[in-house]
Amino acid sequence: MRSKKPSARSYSHRTLKILWGRAAGRCAVPECRTELIVDATDHDPIVVIGDIAHIEASSNKGPRANRKLTTKDRHSYANLILLCKNCHVRFDAQKRTNTVGAIRILRAEHEAWVRTSLPERGHSATGWHVLILQGNHPIDAAQTVAALSPDFPKGKPTTLATTNARSWSENFARMSSAVCGFLAKGDSFDSRFAVFPLAPVTACIAAGYLLTNRPRVRLFQHHRARATWVWPNTKAASSKLKVSGLPSKRSERSGSIAVCFHLSARIGHSEVPIPRRSLLRIIDVAVPAPDVHWLKSPQQLDALGATASNVFDSLQCYFPNASSWHVFYAGPAPGAVKVGQQLNPTMSPPVQLYEYNRAGSPRYERSICLTP
Predict the structure, then answer these.
(1) Per-residue pLDDT, 153
(2) Residue 243, number of CB atoms within 10 A of its CB
(3) Is 65 exposed, middle or buried (0-12, 13-18, 19+ CB in 10 A)?
(4) Cα–Cα distance between 51 and 37 in angstroms, integer?
């Protein structure tokens, strides 16, 4: 009986532990740094979306091949890097740009970033910019610092008040000045923001849009019944989200796209104040049973962010000539920040935001237009 050949790509347990541990389970590309493990849902298991990529090819026919390498050396930690699937394909297809030397430097820099970002003795090596998004009700800054423990704030908390006394354009200008001021002080990928939002939806989405996905952002939910910002230590709540309305093929038409997020309540399509002659499509992102108590864990925010990102990416693909996107959001404040983070200012058309007014006609009133 013939023995089975060993796998062409077999890694020792020690190699895998070092590779995943030093990369902290994230893509090593600084513009990406996506988490490579997706949490389980109520119906599906944990999914690994990362690739173990070779710096010098795993075979003589691969990108950046080195014929002098032994099989053992090809599959050793020194020749491996952890990437998401998108970055892996790009690196291998653009091998002249992504040389062996450039990739080795990139991996070293990523591992250095991980070492400076991980907690040390219960505290981060780097403090967090505490950003308070305040609406009509004042927020106790001391409670936000307590919720951040054992991590610590970097300097005094910054409160951005959005009041009805100012126009939305004035509110946005103040927010943009504050957030961009923080980001301009250093590498945005090394910045850390702890965001405590209790403000109108428009302000929260706009804040996420300004922060983007480049810095590390922790979002907190105010739990009114317990008067605290500390996330409850309970079993992970359902992160199931359903997307409906996406087309099956690409359209070259120009017009408006409406995206409705139904988390705490349902948004009736009749409430969408866009002329039907210019409306190309209404996309719905909804939980099975919208409820004001839906948000119970940060994992639900991660699922919301991933879903919103996929929807916005799909819109760019299916409707490349869309003249504008219109975002309608019924949900908790931190979720609005998370949705705003997924809007790419260099890729999307103008994004019109709306604020809900129960007594208004229409109930959803235009607020800020986010323009590239």
Answers:
(1) 86
(2) 15
(3) middle
(4) 11
Place of tokens 């030093």: 22
Tell me if 133 sits within 8 A of 194, measured CB to CB. no
Kindly give the residue spans of alpha helices, DSSP state H, lying in the chain. Answer: 13-23, 71-74, 85-93, 100-117, 141-148, 168-183, 201-211, 298-318, 333-341
- Between CA 84 and CA 67 the distance in angstroms is 26
Q: Is a pLDDT exceeding 70 seen at residue 111?
A: yes
- Main-chain phi, psi angles of 225, to 5 degrees: -60, -35
CA distances from 130 to 49, 158, 228 (A): 31, 6, 16
> Cα–Cα distance between 161 and 289 in angstroms, integer?
32
Per the rule left: phi > 0, alpha: psi between -120 and 50, beta: everything else, 301 is alpha
pLDDT of 121 over the 70 cut: no
Q: How far apart are CA 22 and CA 115, in angstroms?
A: 8
- pLDDT by residue (tens digit) across 339-363? 999 998 888 899 999 999 888 888 9
User: For residue 101, what are its two tokens?
Assistant: 């030397």
Task: Take residue 100 and report the two structure tokens written for it.
Answer: 């062996």
Choose which CATH entry (1.10.1060, 3.30.70, 3.40.1360, 1.10.10) describes domain 242-370.
3.40.1360
What is the SS3 string spanning 254-316? CCEEEEEEECCCCCCHHHCCCCCCCEEEEEEEECCCCCCCCCCCHHHHHHHHHHHHHHHHHHH
Section 129-133 average pLDDT:
93
Q: 290 or 232: which carries more pLDDT confidence? A: 290
> Could you give the CA distance from residue 361 to residue 354 in angstroms, rounded to a whole number?
13
Q: What residues does 285 pair with on adjacent strands?
A: 243, 261
pLDDT at 106 (0 to 100): 86
Measure the CA–CA gap between 193 and 80, rounded to whole angstroms: 31
pLDDT at 366: 94
Q: How many Cβ atoms from other residues are within 10 Å of residue 47's Cβ?
A: 11
Among candidates 217, 136, 143, which has minimal Cα distance to 179?
217
Question: Distance (Å, rounded) from C-alpha 310 to C-alpha 329?
Answer: 17
Predicted confidence (pLDDT) at residue 227 exceeds the cutoff of 60: yes
pLDDT for 188 equals 60
